[in-house]
Every structure is written in C-alpha cells, then in structure tokens.
Amino acid sequence: MDNIRSSHNVGSIFRTADVASVEKIFLCGITPGPKDKYGRINKKLAKVALGAEKNVAHEHCKSTGVLIGRLKKHGYKILPLEQNKKSVNIFKFRPVKKFKYALVLGEETKGLPEGILKKADKILEIPQRGKKESLNVSVAFGIAAFHLLY
C-alpha cells in the first residue's frame, strides 16, 4: 500500500488479505499500521480488521520504490492496480502459478505515481461501467487478490 490515508481502508485490506492468505502486507509512506509510532493500537483499523491485523504479517517501509526493488530481487512480479493508458484488464490477465506477485495499491484519490508504474511488470485495471471513475481501494484490492488466487 503506497500512502493509503484511511485506517478504515487499511483495516479492510488486512481483513481481506487474511481471508485470501496473503503472505505479507507492506505499509509504505504514510499508510497507517495496526499500531502508531508509540505502540498504541489503531482503533479505527482494528475495528474494521476484526483481528486480521494480528494474523497477517506486515512491515512498514518508507519508500515504495525501494521496496519494489527488494521484491524484484526476490523474484516477485510487480502488479500495480491503477487506471493508466498502459494498464490491461485484470480479467484478461492470467496469473502463472510459478510466479510470485506483489499487488501495489495507491493513494485513494491520486493513485500511484508514474515512478512506481514504470517499475511494473504489468499494470492491471478493473474495468468500470458506471459513472464513478473508480472503486474504493479496499474493494479493488479484494477483487484483484481473489482474481490472482484463481
């Protein structure tokens, strides 16, 4: 998660990640974690996560770009979820079981910066049919995570 602002969204992503057996969540930039810098529980996040924040491994990283470099060295394919002229319909993307994937989620209103998108192996997009331009980041994560599983 790159600079996700809402503790509610982060809590929802933790809960979905638990159900989807996500290996690890990376909280980058200003993305809030289950505890603040003083070790106090983030009550907003915990209320939505319903304990999943205790089950899913997580790590805070200052820089999403540095993290992506680290993940690539460990063999991960980088998949930002973003509306972009280079993005492909997520439902036309077929995950290959031999690969490990890192799904990258961007800030709720601005999305992911171009520098992050340039590091992608493939940019994925969920097609939109209504009048709104996008889904809530936690909903989009749920759709993408389960698509990558199956």
Descriptive account of the structure:
It is a single chain. The chain is an alpha/beta fold. It has a single domain, classed as SPOUT methyltransferase, trefoil knot domain (Alpha/beta knot). Helices cover 34% and strands 15% of the residues. The chain has 6 helices and 6 strands, in the order H-E-H-H-E-H-E-E-E-H-E-H. Strands 1-2 form a two-stranded parallel ribbon. Strands 3-5 form a two-stranded parallel sheet. A two-stranded parallel sheet has the order 4-6. Helix 1 packs parallel to helix 2 and helix 1 (7-19) runs parallel beside helix 6. The protein is globular and about 40 Å long. The relative contact order is 0.20. The model has no long low-confidence stretch (mean pLDDT 96).
What can be said about this structure in brief?
The chain is of the alpha/beta class. Helix content is 34%, strand content 15%. It has a single domain, classed as 3-Layer(aba) Sandwich (Alpha/beta knot), CATH 3.40.1280.
Mean pLDDT metric: 96
Structural class: alpha/beta
Distance between the termini: 22 Å
Shape: globular
User: Largest beta sheet: what is the strand line-up?
Assistant: 1-2
| Rg measurement, Å | 15 Å
How do the helices and strands follow one another from N- to C-terminus? HEHHEHEEEHEH
State the CATH superfamily name. Answer: SPOUT methyltransferase, trefoil knot domain
